[in-house]
Each structure stands twice: as C-alpha cells, then as structure tokens.
Design a protein that fits this description.
Distance between the termini: 65 Å
Number of helices: 3
Number of strands: 71
Strand content: 35-45%
Strand order of the largest sheet: 40-67-66-65-64-63-62
Radius of gyration: 32 Å
C-alpha cells in the first residue's frame, strides 16, 4: 500500500499584490527623483492610496493597505512635466477627459502631468485630448476621473507623495523552502540562540490568546488562534529565532528575515528590515517557559490584545516588568522542527488558487460556474482528484458536477464543448477526477447542472477540501482554508442567462442595459458596445446594438445595429446610454447620447432610432437635437437652449394617453436640471419641456401613478431623489408639466447609480397595488437590491437581494406571464473585462409572497384551512420554493405560519 502524504495548503493567491511600506513624505517637487518610485495617497475622504486595478485607478472611500499596485515611477519630460507609471501593471496615467475614469495607458498615450505642489500637497493637472483644456483629478464611484480644476485645497483633487521603503521582506527565507514544520507541544524552559520557535501569548482574560505572526500586508505583529502547520514557507509569518545582540540582549528575526522593531506604548509592534532594536528577554518571576519581551531603547514591554472573534494586535504596553504569569505579556516559546518535504509532493503554497464563480443561476441551467481553480504542479501528475463538500441546499438543487479546463481567463465567453472530468454522484462529499496533468499552470472550472425544479432563492456553493494526486507516489493537498472564497455561492432564479458576455463579438466591454417588450410581448434589449475601453461616450467610439428574445429570455437572436458611430464626425462619433420606449402604434423608440464630447464637457447631441418591426431593424436619426423634429420650449425659436444635455439610459415612459417621455440631464443658468423630452405623435416630433423636474439631477426614471400623475426617481448619492407632477396633454401637441417640490427619501439609499422603477400591478378587484425599485444599496457599486412599495412610492421596503457583490446599472420589465425580468450589469465574476450583462427573472408567486410578508393585503385570502387528504392521507404545505414545511392537522393553520403565499394540495393559498 502506498503511503499517503498530506500537504497543507494555505496561500489563496500567490500572485496577490506584494505589500510595501510607506516611507517619508515628499514635500517639494525638487525632492522627486527622475525614475524614482513613490506611493500616491489621495487626500479625498478616507485618504486611500491610489491603486492601479489594470483598467482604472481605484480610490476607495476608506483607508487601504499600500501594495505594489500603489507604487508609481515618475519620469520627467523635457518640458518639466511628468509621466507617471505604475510598478505593478507597467501602465501610465493616461490623458484625462472630463467626468470620465482615468485609464491606464501605454507610454505613447501617457498624459503629461504637472504636480503644482504647495504645502507638501500635490495638485496634479494635465491637458485633455483636445490639447488645450487643463483638467485635474477627482474621485467618482471610488475611481479617479478627470475633472475641472478647483481651488488647490479641494482635497479630492490633491494627493501626498511618499517614498517607498523597499527592503522589508515579504518572501520566506530560502532555508525554509521544501520544508514542513513540526511544532513541539512542550515550550522551552530557556531561550536558545538560532533555534526556530513559534511564540504563544498565555493571556487568558477576558478571552484566550494565541500565536504571534507578522501580518504581511501591514508588516505588523498580530496574534491568532490558528496554529502554524504545513510547509515552512506558509508558516514563515509565525516563525521567530533569536540572534545575539550583545549585553545579554537579542535581535528577534522572523521567517521572512524581518526583525522586531521598537515597542512603543499603546502602539502596534512593527517589523523592520534590519537588526536595529535589541530586545531583553527575561523569565517572569523566575518561572521557566514564561517570558517577557522588552525593548532596550524604550523600556516598553510587549503585550497582546484579546483575540475575541478574530486576529488581534500585538502592542507595546507600559514599562513595568511583569511579576505574575499568565497575563497578556506572558509568552511561551514552542520549538519548531523543519523536516524535508517528500519528493512526491508536487503542489506547494501558491500552486493552488480558488476564486468564486457566478453569483446567480437559473432553473435548468447548465455550466453554472461554482468555482474557478488554478493548479500549477511542479511535476507531471498521472491523476488528480478534486474533492468537494456540498451543503444540503446544493445537493438538492443540482444533478451533476463537472470540470472544464481552458487556457483563457474568461470562462463566460469560452466554455469548452467537453469537460475533462464529471460526476453524477451529488453527495455531501463528492469528487471529480482529471487525468494526466503536465507541470505548469492549469485553469479549471467547476460547474453544475441545475435541476428544473430547483428551489428559488437557495444559495448553491461548493467547497474544495482536498486535491489528491499521483506523481512518484500518492499525495494530497489540503485546500480547506482556501476552498470557497468568502463562503459565497449562486442564488437560484427562475431564469438566468448572461445576454452580453465580455470578449464576445470583438468587444471586451458591454455596459448600460435597456429593455422593453414589443407589441407582441417579446423582449427587446439594447446595450453599449464599448469595445476595448470601459469609459463613457466622448472618450472613444461606442455603438449601440440590440437583441430580441421570443421565448421569454431563454434564447436570443443575433445582434441588430441600433446606432453605429462613424468615429470621426463630432456629432456622430459614437452613440451610447440607450433608453427604450414603445409608442402606442407599436413602434419602438430608442433615445441615445451621442457625439465626441462627454456629458460634462459640452455634449449637445442625441441620437434617435426607430424600429417598425419590433427591434429587428432600426432607422437612425443621427442628431435629433439638430433636426426639424426637435423643439426646445426654453427658446422661442425652438433651438437647443442648454450648454450640455444627456438623455437618461434604461427605459422611457409611455403614458396612458400616448405621450412618450424620456428624462434628461441638462446644464444651463439654473444648474444641472432635469427636463422631460416628450413626443405626442408616436415619436415623430419631440419637444424639450421648459418645466424643471429636478435641480441637481442625475439619471432618473419616470412612472405614471394610478391618478395619471407622474413619479420621478432620481439617482443621487445616499438618499434617492424624488418629485411628482401632474401634466396636461394639450390639443396643439404640447404637454404642460406642473412639478411639485423635490425631496429625498431614505427608504432608497445607496451609491449614485442608475436604477429602475416599475409599476408591477395596479390596485383593482383582482390585483394588489405593487411598485418595484431596483437599486444599489451600498456606498460602492455592489449589492443590487429589489424594494417594494405598497403605497405608490410613498414608502419602500427591501424585499430581495438580486446580487450581493459587484453590480451596477439595472432595468426591469413585467413579462406576459406575470414574472419580472431584471437586466443588470454583473461584475461579481470577472476576469478583468468589466461587466457581464445578466438577465434574471423573479416569479409572480415570489412577488405576491413578498407583498404579503411586507404587510400587503391581497384581494382574496383565507382565515383558516382544513386540508383535504392527499393521496398519502395527509395535507402537506409547501412554500413557493417547493420546500415541504408541514403536514397540518385539521385545525386552523392561521396561527402556525407567517404571512405569505403557500401551496396546499396543489393550490396557492394566501396566509394573512
């Protein structure tokens, strides 16, 4: 029998950014060395370090850790301007464009930046692409954007520049390679020079303490309940040894080759690159194996905070030498033995990484991605068996598991025809075997087939626990600690499909979903085709394309071109941010931003496309605002009165009396205001209203209330903006709007992001009154939420989270079967290519269930129930996901179950 060697794996990502230490601040431009490396810290709220993500520059709303992605080389041009190059990506700060994300660029496309330093603060500026306008930086949606220059003390446009301390190690010492650690269970009585130890804090009050380690991204000391094990490289952060510093003192070196720094009172202990701080190590009250640590320069003693629910800091605390044991300053030294790794070990720390898969799936879906796994063996393997654990919800909802292998990093658009391993044995512990792996990197994708009757709302997830393999002998890699990042999974929807996928059809980036039903109830969607740049219109050429589905979103027809930019003419350069509406004659109308300028920098054009065949083909009016079909009510001659105009994307409104309405953002002497762009003749002629709907506006949505009035929902940061209006359709084809006072509402709160508003059902004898709102309910662009109003938008209640992670713009429609389709930008799984455009549906039964749970009263209800016997002699009660929740007696069940919709003997019943 072959011996089975167990190998413990710890590193979740060997390619993660290396942490760096921040040095002294550069306070004058003369202190910047041509070709030198520096860390840039935004002075916006949170003072984060500016991080190159690869496609944009991240500026989060809170402090972050400096890594190599925050380090920039400064190269001086002949004119004294600077090129700024990121160490990690090799890309330069590009040329800024107003209100557009600053993009990393090649050397020939790099911006020429002045620093304008004053009082130690830099105020970077560069010329825009037009060669004359000088722009600064700013923060929007936690990213760097180009912006007009403001006063030099405007914090979001300024940054501090720091030197980089490059000599602190993040790599384990070479002597630890190909070794495993064995930790003794008995602490040493005395300190032995040069011997490897792990240090354990003996404090027990109020909570247990643990093992000291260096937190590599901070270069600070912490303690944790997790004991070191596995390879010495993985355990390097725990390992310490003592070197002679003379005079009975010691230098304390860890497994990275770093040294303990000076202990400062009430400060976290840091590590330094060089042996510079001698430490006194003494026995507490003469007890063997109970040691205190005290730095000679400060006299401060090392202490440890309580672990509580997670890791805790190691700090300096006071100068009094302890006289009693088992306190927070009492340290045990457990000897560590290094043993050679067995030759059959082919997977080491960093050779296995696991990334979460999709966050949504649908009933009956195949190739539903649970996990992405990268495996890089150091030698050829004859057989590899991936072992997983599946929780009950996952086992109940999937019929098979299988693994694909690809060379590409983008799986959504490149699913192979045949998996390399598969199993139908869906159990609590299951395995999939792959044959013959060569040495080097392999990308694997664990997928599942979802059952047709999967429970709606269940979260499906797999945990990689072990990789068994055969090289020169059998061996195993323990992946438990990295087997499911963030312990997340896929939520089951009635339907789910990625309609537009990154890197397909010669396009890397898709954005800005719009969706509507044609006159026959078929779905038509439109999208920005942004090609190789994710930035907004005005920075590059964008086209708008559409797709149709005639089976409720299960399959989709080929693209139709809605509007194609010419890439050269100012007004027709590109088109984007489409919004759709259907005229009463059945024509589809698509309004779009257009041209070569950004919204914030002089956009004064808009495209209009019409389809008379349900979105199969489109006819384009290149610039509606400069055509005879347009009239601006703010000017007597009807010419465009505003300096900037942007039509809100997503969905327009067709009122009950046939008026087509789209909302706009406009700039004029009143500020940034919302005017309604409307048509009363099926989109043949258009007028820009002179009634201000909202001041300080952003992208917005309209709905018509039951009394015929209008409700406006406006994108804002924090509490969402609102207004209401009555309107009159006049005989001369004009519309008179009477807007009320705008207001903000905390029920809908989150990131400044486009969202959607949908009147699902209107109160009648057979229908309840339900309005739905999709929106991002965090400060960042993640967590797409669905909220419901039972009183025509006066109040809102959160009812369902569609997507817990990266997500953005969304739009909704009601399908002919009563289900609601949601089309949204999904960044929860991405290979650096931006958003996939995700289509999901929630069922009418789910919505009615949420309505009842929110306190709504359906038109029909019951007070109690005596169920008829089922074929098995029992009346079973199920919820709408299909779970059997009870076998009731013949008594009333009103007091037993919470409010909601249930299935009893095959019939849907409302409990109130």
């Amino acid at each position: 029998m072959m011996a089975l060697v167990i190998f413990m794996g710890f590193s979740a990502n060997a390619k993660a950014q290396a942490s760096v230490s921040v040095g002294k601040q550069i306070t004058q431009e003369s202190g910047i060395v041509d070709g030198g490396k520096y860390i840039l810290q935004s002075q916006a709220s949170g003072t984060p370090y500016i991080t190159d993500s690869g496609t944009y520059y991240s500026v989060p709303n809170k402090a972050n850790t400096a890594t190599t992605a925050c380090v920039y080389y400064f190269y001086k041009n002949d004119d004294g301007m600077w090129k700024i190059k990121n160490q990690n990506t090799g890309k330069y700060w590009g040329v800024p464009e107003y209100n557009s994300f600053l993009e990393p660029a090649g050397v020939y496309e790099a911006g020429a930046w002045s620093l304008n330093m004053s009082g130690g603060i830099a105020f970077p500026r560069a010329k825009a692409a037009n060669g004359t306008t000088v722009l600064s930086i700013d923060r929007s949606s936690q990213k760097l954007v180009g912006w007009t220059t403001k006063s030099s003390n405007y914090s979001a446009q300024t940054m501090k520049i720091y030197e980089v301390v490059t000599d602190i190690s993040t790599e384990a010492l070479p002597e630890l390679e190909n070794k495993t650690v064995v930790v003794s269970s008995t602490p040493d009585k005395d300190v032995e020079l040069g011997k490897w130890y792990t240090m354990f804090d003996r404090g027990t009050s109020p909570d247990a303490h643990g093992y000291l380690f260096e937190k590599v991204d901070e270069h600070k000391l912490y303690n944790t309940a997790t004991a070191p094990s596995g390879t010495a490289v993985a355990a390097a952060k725990y390992l310490v040894r003592f070197l002679d510093a003379g005079n009975g003192q010691y230098y304390v070196q860890n497994g990275f080759g770093n040294y303990f720094g000076a202990f400062e009172h009430q400060s976290v202990v840091t590590v330094v690159a060089k042996a510079s701080e001698p430490v006194i190590i003494g026995k507490i009250a003469g007890y063997d194996a109970h040691f205190y640590f005290q730095t000679g320069s400060t006299g401060v003693v090392m202490d440890a905070n309580d672990i509580h629910a997670g890791d805790a800091t190691v700090v300096g605390w006071g100068t009094t030498v302890p006289t009693s044991i088992n306190g927070n300053n009492d340290w045990a030294l457990y000897p560590v033995t290094l043993e050679e790794l067995a030759p059959e070990i082919a997977l080491f720390d960093g050779d296995v990484t696991v990334t979460r898969g999709y966050q949504t799936t649908g009933r009956g879906n195949t190739d539903a991605l649970l996990l992405r796994m990268e495996v890089a063996p150091s030698q050829t393997l004859q057989q590899v068996t991936f072992r997983f654990t599946l929780d009950e919800a996952t086992r109940n909802n999937i019929s098979s598991l299988y693994i694909y292998e690809t060379k590409e990093t983008e799986f959504i658009a490149n699913i192979p025809e045949t998996p390399v391993g598969t199993t139908d044995d869906v159990a609590a512990t299951t395995s999939v075997t792959v044959e013959n792996l060569s040495a080097g990197l392999h990308r694997f994708w664990l997928c599942a087939t979802i059952k047709e009757d999967a429970n709606l709302g269940d979260i499906l997830k797999a945990n990689l626990t072990t990789i068994d393999y055969t090289s020169t002998a059998d061996a195993s890699y323990d992946a438990t600690s990295i087997g499911n990042p963030n312990r997340q999974g896929m939520k089951v929807f009635d339907q789910q499909m990625f309609v537009f996928k990154p890197t397909t059809d010669n396009c890397r980036y898709y954005r800005i979903p719009a969706m509507i039903l044609d006159k026959d109830g078929n779905i038509v969607v439109a999208i920005d085709k942004r090609y190789n740049s994710n930035s907004d219109l005005g920075n590059h050429k964008i086209d708008v394309v559409s797709m149709r589905s005639e089976d409720g979103g299960r399959t989709w027809q080929d693209y139709a071109m809605v509007a194609k930019g010419d890439g050269s003419t100012a007004a027709y350069y590109g088109y984007g941010d489409a919004a759709l509406a259907r005229a009463v004659n059945g024509d589809l109308v698509c309004i779009m931003a257009s041209g070569s300028k950004t919204w914030g920098y002089g956009m004064v054009t808009a495209g209009l496309a019409r389809s008379t065949d349900d979105g199969k083909t489109w006819t384009l009016v290149k610039n509606l605002l400069d055509s005879p079909a347009f009239f601006d009510e703010n000017n007597a001659d009807g010419s465009l009165s505003v300096s900037n105009i942007f039509t809100s994307s997503g969905k327009g409104l067709t009122t009950t009396d046939g008026v087509i309405m789209f909302t706009t953002n406009c700039k004029n002497s009143l500020g940034t205001v919302c005017y309604i762009l409307y048509s009363t003749d099926n989109g043949s002629h258009w007028r820009l209203s002179n009634a201000v709907a909202y001041t300080g506006t952003d992208e917005s949505k309209l709905e018509q209330l039951n009394d015929g009035s209008l409700l406006l929902s406006v994108r804002q940061s924090g509490n969402r903006g609102w207004n209401k209006a009555t309107y009159t359709k006049n005989n001369d084809g004009t519309v008179t709007f009477n807007w009320g006072s705008q207001y903000r509402q905390s029920d809908i709160w989150g990131n400044a992001c486009n969202a959607d508003l949908l009147y699902y059902t209107r109160k009648s004898e057979t229908e309840p009154d339900i309005m739905l709102h999709s929106f991002i309910n965090t400060s960042g662009r993640e967590s797409l939420q669905l909220s419901m109003s039972l009183n025509a938008g006066s109040n809102w209640k959160g009812i369902y989270n569609i997507q817990p992670n990266g997500s953005c713009y969304s739009t909704m429609i009601t399908l002919p079967n009563g289900n609601v389709a949601i089309l949204f930008e999904d960044e929860s799984y991405s290979a650096g290519n931006g958003y996939a455009i995700n289509f999901v549906t929630v069922t009418r039964e789910q919505i009615l269930d949420w309505f009842v749970k929110a306190g709504g009263e359906l038109p029909t209800s019951i007070d109690g129930l005596t169920p008829d016997p089922s074929p098995k002699g029992e009346g079973s009660i199920y919820d709408l996901t299909g779970r059997r929740i009870s076998v009731p007696s013949a008594t009333s069940v009103r007091s037993v179950f919470p409010k909601g919709v249930y299935v009893i003997n095959g019939k849907k019943v409302i409990m109130k």
